[in-house]
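I keep forgetting this: the sequence line spells out the residues, with the fold written below as integer tokens. I include a record here:
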Amino acid sequence: MAKITLSNLRHSYLANPKGPEDYALKEIDLDWMDGGAYALLGPSGCGKSTLLNIISGLLSPSEGRILFDDQDVTALAPDKRNIAQVFQFPVIYDTMTVRENLAFPLRNRGVAASKIAERVAEIAALLEVEEMLDIRAAHLSPDNKQKISMGRGLVRDDVNVVMFDEPLTVIDPHLKWKLRSKLKELHQRVKATMIYVTHDQTEALTFADQVVVMQDGEVVQIGTPVELFERPQHTFVGHFIGSPGMNLLPAEESSGGRVSFQGQGVALEGPIKGAGGLTQIGIRPEYVTLGAAGVEAQVRKVSDVGRHCVVEAIAGPTLVKAIVPGDPPLQGETVHLGFRQDQTRLYRDGWVATEAAT
């Protein structure tokens, strides 16, 4: 396995890019450590697949370098990078048995028969497909086909990285959780460096130790699932992660580092940095409370989602969502919104502009 470094990486599909808007990938610098579980998370068109293709060698970057264990591999062909990749659709041979499919990557590299048998048995046990080993792949269900595709990516123990490109997209929703939990278990057992590309926050947050969130070709935050949820560095992260996403409220700044919403002062997590630009207050619904005091609002909708209710209230022209664990208010009722101070922060032009409380 390998540490992967992306240094000053940029890419444009245009021959002569003029400005940042011409780049599918804006400047990216990051390290993925040996043996880690990582996710690239973002909406369609944000640059995830472009970045994955650059790492695998299918695409040459316009600028910058890719290093495996500090060795520059930018100019190396895909077959020289020693990468295993699992795609959106299962890549297996229907005419082969499960055993033959798992063995193929090793047999193709001239690995000894005894080693192949040992490794196939090990991966089959990890995937819990021992009883299927002599069944032709054509007879497998879609989730089992994708299991075998994953196994083909994991069967080699000499790869630098295993990359998963939206591997659960074609799987039925009720089967996704099985494969997702199995993949997490596999990483914990084999300790391979893994990069998981997805637009699904649940997949990213349940699989990865570190998540790279991308928007418009730019990395907007790298962090653990807890860090991304608890302290989004950008409004996009707050909106994209969480269900429902973070509330963004128009902020009115005044002298002395104070802000207000609907004419009422709002206490922030810490001092404000910088000046100017579009300012917004960010607060997750989990940290909005309904009480006797606070910003007055009228309940527009109440959604019972099982363990709690999501209350949508209108404060002036602004919709504010709150997660309420107990009995919710009634539609049309007047409520008062409170914001937990250590989870309330100011954003300036999308980026966090308050210092965290120490």
Notes: Helices lie at 48-56, 98-107, 113-127, 142-154, 173-190, 201-207, 225-230, 235-240. Residues 124 and 131 are 9 Å apart (CA to CA). The chain has two domains: 4-235, 243-352. Residues 173-190 form the longest helix (18 residues).
